């Protein structure tokens, strides 16, 4: 995790490792306690993944079906996030574009081009860094996929608003209580939102990696049921150019 | 058409993470030892260089930002650099010397003894990561390898190359402080001072376990740094 965006994390090392603050100058107990603490955290993420499967497994399946339909219709995937979540956005893009197996699909992480990112940040503002790129690249039928551990990243929220205006399928991953992204889900801007119920930025990120890998696997599963080549190629949109739908759509996007 | 409903496929996909996730808990001691050695290097002014190819390049970037910009307010920033982020240099070295040299070249020109190299690969098949770790060992860096595919399939135990780690792990290269078997050695050539291998051959699962692994490494590095010298010797 890089972006200190999650107020839910709260405490520091004292909460994570209370034994450090007990009187002991002997390194041996520190070693044993550190190991035990790691064992506990490794177990915690296993349980959190199971919880995610129970809470949102069926919704993940529905989301994957809609993503597969979007790809089959010639849609492209755009991913975004800040700090550690930007590395997840990059992971999602490369997982779809260059999978270890299955069908390669058009995907782009919006933090890839540092020239674009710094130009927009410097000239317009950091909140616009993803929304502006979607305004230029995105079109109806594409997919906007954003990650935020807190759900409180303004540039991610702005990007979803822009994506919804364009008629894109919008998919968000968040943690804690979901922050602004929960509001966007309730108002219909976000088509799919998966919130990891944890107060730890680290555990949230770890559970999110599983959610997007399962989404990728299910998308491939659905597409495998359609003949190869049945989907439109991403460059085939004679009837849809970037910007065509910008003003024509209601602000709230698809239901 | 598949027989299982997509909801069933989803449940099975989530459940497929359980085994490797449980195995990580049993690797906690390995992680503690690696973090302790990393803390020693940071304490003495060393920096971290980290690299991975393919999707593991995104993990290298994550590790770097984890150390450079701590998520917990008040933790000191520690010097870290992801070598796979420099697309210009990676593609230049790759085109001229071959992709296998992409990280080794940067290690030789960016790092020195006293530093830390972390190489990340999901199937142990990345020549660039292996060469990067080799170059790091030759220079005397502490080397940490996050890899995958442990026990799948069982590989032959090859000649172990003990590196400079023996000196600063108190000579317990083969066993942990509790005398347990060093799981990293089982079935693998020891290509780094610390080898933490995920018990899965699925690259997606390996990545997920790697994320937890480096989160724990980061936390424990700070734990050891706050402990003072006695915990680092």
TrEMBL record, chain A:
<feature type="domain" description="SIS">
    <location>
        <begin position="67"/>
        <end position="225"/>
    </location>
</feature>
<dbReference type="InterPro" id="IPR046348">
    <property type="entry name" value="SIS_dom_sf"/>
</dbReference>
<dbReference type="InterPro" id="IPR050099">
    <property type="entry name" value="SIS_GmhA/DiaA_subfam"/>
</dbReference>
<feature type="compositionally biased region" description="Basic and acidic residues">
    <location>
        <begin position="233"/>
        <end position="247"/>
    </location>
</feature>
<dbReference type="GO" id="GO:1901135">
    <property type="term" value="P:carbohydrate derivative metabolic process"/>
</dbReference>
<dbReference type="InterPro" id="IPR035461">
    <property type="entry name" value="GmhA/DiaA"/>
</dbReference>
<dbReference type="GO" id="GO:0016853">
    <property type="term" value="F:isomerase activity"/>
</dbReference>
<feature type="region of interest" description="Disordered">
    <location>
        <begin position="226"/>
        <end position="255"/>
    </location>
</feature>
<dbReference type="Pfam" id="PF13580">
    <property type="entry name" value="SIS_2"/>
</dbReference>
<keyword id="KW-0413">Isomerase</keyword>
<dbReference type="GO" id="GO:0097367">
    <property type="term" value="F:carbohydrate derivative binding"/>
</dbReference>
<dbReference type="InterPro" id="IPR001347">
    <property type="entry name" value="SIS_dom"/>
</dbReference>
<protein>
    <submittedName>
        <fullName>Phosphoheptose isomerase</fullName>
    </submittedName>
</protein>
From TrEMBL, chain B:
<dbReference type="InterPro" id="IPR001347">
    <property type="entry name" value="SIS_dom"/>
</dbReference>
<dbReference type="GO" id="GO:1901135">
    <property type="term" value="P:carbohydrate derivative metabolic process"/>
</dbReference>
<dbReference type="Pfam" id="PF13580">
    <property type="entry name" value="SIS_2"/>
</dbReference>
<protein>
    <submittedName>
        <fullName>Phosphoheptose isomerase</fullName>
    </submittedName>
</protein>
<feature type="region of interest" description="Disordered">
    <location>
        <begin position="146"/>
        <end position="189"/>
    </location>
</feature>
<dbReference type="InterPro" id="IPR050099">
    <property type="entry name" value="SIS_GmhA/DiaA_subfam"/>
</dbReference>
<dbReference type="GO" id="GO:0016853">
    <property type="term" value="F:isomerase activity"/>
</dbReference>
<feature type="compositionally biased region" description="Basic and acidic residues">
    <location>
        <begin position="179"/>
        <end position="189"/>
    </location>
</feature>
<keyword id="KW-0413">Isomerase</keyword>
<dbReference type="InterPro" id="IPR035461">
    <property type="entry name" value="GmhA/DiaA"/>
</dbReference>
<dbReference type="InterPro" id="IPR046348">
    <property type="entry name" value="SIS_dom_sf"/>
</dbReference>
<dbReference type="GO" id="GO:0097367">
    <property type="term" value="F:carbohydrate derivative binding"/>
</dbReference>
<feature type="domain" description="SIS">
    <location>
        <begin position="38"/>
        <end position="233"/>
    </location>
</feature>
